[in-house]
Amino acid sequence: MLRGLARRELSADEVRSMIGDGTHALVGRALRATGEVVDLENAHQRFLDFYEAAPTRLSRLYPAVATTLCSLIGSGARLAICTNKQQAATLAVLDGFNIAKYFEVIVGGDAVPFRKPDPRHLLTALEQLRASPDESVMIGDNENDHAAARAAGAAVILMRYGYLRVPPETLAPDAWLDHFADIPPALDRINRKR
């Protein structure tokens, strides 16, 4: 997208630091980092066109994601996704990695008039799942996930390898995890405390 706008390319680290509030915010940050924000809507649509054509080209699943999701479903867990990423882009990624089948509900950032950290985004997903916050656990990777879960009354697990933009010590999740495969035992610990 930036090349098409005659802008400099961003490094992977620069882009990583901009992720976390959906693609619209990502494109706005990329434009600001490379000059003026001109025609954000057109730039965002160009980004979506590129992204949705090959959503997993530069992505990979973290180790043990598919097996852990399968294990969670097998143990009776019901899964939803609450993401600031657009619905279509989210579905394209999930389909590209063949993991959409594990999720009963997917609520993208453009499917509701409010987005994380607003707790109503998470509450909408839980309502569609017919689940209550006090019986739910948000698994996330940044401060927006933490804030939405806490404000909604849900427990929260944060992955250390995510897109955190604040010092970790400023957050108090129920668990910090380094590996996706550690989610089931962490959920067991959280549920035993309830």
Description of the molecule:
- The protein has eight helices and five strands.
- By secondary structure, the protein is mainly alpha-helical.
- It folds into two domains: 3-53, no CATH class; 65-193, HAD superfamily/HAD-like (Rossmann fold).
- The strands form two sheets. It has a three-stranded parallel sheet with strand order 3-4-5, with helices on both faces. Strands 1-2 form a two-stranded parallel ribbon.
- It starts with 11 loop residues before the first helix and ends with a helix.
Q: Total helix count?
A: 8
Strand order of the largest sheet: 3-4-5
Q: For the residues shown, what is the average pLDDT?
A: 94
Total domain units: 2
Low-confidence residue ranges? none
| CATH-defined topology of the largest domain | Rossmann fold
Fraction of residues in helices? 40-55%
Coarse structural class: mainly alpha
What's the end-to-end separation, in Å?
47 Å
Strand content: 5-15%
What is the makeup of the main sheet?
3 strands, parallel
- Which series of helices and strands comes N to C? HHHHEHEHEHEEH
| Overall 3D shape | globular
Number of E strands:
5
The CATH architecture classification of the largest domain is: 3-Layer(aba) Sandwich
- CATH superfamily label of the largest domain: HAD superfamily/HAD-like
Rounded to the nearest angstrom, the radius of gyration is 17 Å
> Briefly, what CATH class of the largest domain?
Alpha Beta
